[in-house]
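Long-time lurker. I teach an intro course on protein structure, and each term I like to show students one example going from raw sequence to a predicted 3D structure in token notation. This year I'd like something fresh instead of my usual example. Would anyone be willing to generate the tokens for the chain below so I can use it in lecture? Attribution to the forum is fine with me.
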Amino acid sequence: MRRLRFIERAALWTGQVGRRAVAATFDVSISHVTSDFHRYREMAPRNLSYDVAEKCFRPTASFKPLFETEDPADILSTIAASVTLPNQDRCRLLGFTPSVDVAQALPVAIDQALLVSICRGITVGAALEINYQSMATPEANKRLFAPHALIFTGQRWLVRGWDGRHQAYRDLALARVLSAGATRELGEDLPRDDKWHDRATLEISLIDGMSSGQVDVTAREFGMRREPDGSFAVRIQPRKAMIPYVLDHLRLRPTDHASQAAPIRLRNYDDIREFDRPSAAG
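-- Reply from a regular --
Happy to contribute to a lecture. Here you go:
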């Protein structure tokens, strides 16, 4: 089934797919791949035609995806997420390997043993005795911390969990965790992490002062739809705990407008202000 999906994806997104490419990608024989093409053409007889000169199959004018119609936004997200994979693995995942790069985040300085301890703590739901260097205190301090999720902000890796020192759920920078002791039972039932499990709606619209052409192309760029009042908007629903990082990434706070590169704004900031950092909310 993975090879059949590969055949369809490669044909759709590159305009051609050959037996040798499929065989090399999946480490199977040409005879196996020949059977795959035969099966695919039985399932979708009008999708592929054989190019004798180039010895490959091409999508026909009546090509219609057999498995699913994929959202271009999802495909682009997959392309971006697969950029660090070996070429063969990317090809298996995508069906094609376009040249692509992404803006790199700075590397996080964390050793394997520490990350293993945190991931195991998340998996089994146990607490860790950690030594953490906060920017709010001059010296590192020890605390009981029950991790339950990892967060990547686009720039930094954080771990979210119950902080025994503050008796609340906190996000800690991975690189500031200096050590993590053996896991142990908390001895108490933790409260529900509402900000992690619940979501809030961000209503993103366009700034004023753009021409009609600029409005149309920007609305398309950010996936916005026309509202009943004629304006354009898109709604996303991040976890409440992720809202500060989304606002950081997209520069959507009211104080960001003067220096914002993208011509978009958050029109319901007052509704989600309580989930932003107090220092950022003003």
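Some talking points for your students: The longest strand covers residues 141-152. The mean pLDDT is 90.
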